[in-house]
Design goal:
Blueprint lengths: L1 H4 L6 E6 L16 H8 L2 H6 L2 H11 L9 E10 L5 E13 L4 H8 L4 H21 L4 E4 L11 H12 L10 E4 L9 H9 L19 E3 L1
Parallel strand pairs: 1-3, 1-4, 4-5, 5-6
Antiparallel strand pairs: 2-3
Helix pairs in contact: 6-7, 7-8
Length: 222
């Protein structure tokens, strides 16, 4: 993320893989995941606190593991820490799109696999909405990733393929200058990275920056 923000002064948006019920997830209790990393390194947490009534309280009250397709857009959030926790010399700014994926683990625990199609249908809705909001807000560079593939246990293969399908939608043609997938994979078999490698056709090219054949803009794996 830090490197991407230094490539000129572009409008950059980061997708926050959010808890549906707690702003910043569990970062105040030492939890370690993508949202918590963003919350610890930036001014995102106070931005999310302003959305308690519209985003978090409804999710807490519903108790549904599907959550909603709502997206929070937080413009120009200051990021002031590096990955190691040390302070940056100068803050960098990126807008943040906050969205909660379906908690697929809970859905499957309650219903088995019969809801798998519904899970991906709902995830695709919020992935498309995040892209639409980014386009509407004039964001030029997007930092996406393995949305909901951690504690929510969504399928990396399905999420990676769905991102490629969404980005190939004609409505996004010419809207973004670059899309980056920042994938941190702690699995022993590297199945998350392999899913994105496959989806992005990285096995078919030696280029570090593959151009997806259908999107019309660079889709980058970092």
């Amino acid at each position: 993320g830090e490197g991407a923000t230094k490539r000129g002064r572009k409008n950059i948006a980061v997708l926050n893989f959010a808890s549906g019920r707690n702003p910043g997830g569990g970062f105040q209790n030492g939890a370690q995941a993508q949202e918590e990393s963003l919350a610890r390194s930036s001014g995102l947490f106070p931005c999310l606190l302003t959305q308690e009534d519209t985003f978090y309280i409804p999710h807490r009250n519903s108790q549904s593991p599907f959550y909603s397709s709502s997206v929070i857009f937080s413009p120009r959030v200051p990021f002031f820490k590096k990955d190691d926790g040390s302070l940056l010399d100068t803050p960098v700014y990126a807008s943040v799109l906050t969205s909660a994926a379906v908690n697929a683990g809970v859905v499957r625990k309650r219903n088995g696999n019969k809801m798998d199609a519904k899970i991906m249908e709902e995830n695709k809705k919020r992935m498309m909405l995040a892209l639409k909001v980014a386009a509407l807000k004039g964001q030029e560079v997007l930092i996406l990733g393995a949305f909901g593939c951690g504690v929510f246990k969504n399928s990396p293969d399905e999420i990676a393929k769905t991102w490629m399908t969404c980005l190939a939608n004609p409505m996004f043609e010419g809207r973004f200058q670059r899309v980056c997938f920042a994938v941190c994979d702690t699995t022993k078999d590297r199945r998350v990275l392999r899913a994105f490698d496959w989806a992005m056709d990285r096995n078919k090219t030696k280029s570090r920056w593959p151009q997806h054949r259908r999107t019309g803009f660079p889709v980058v794996h970092v």
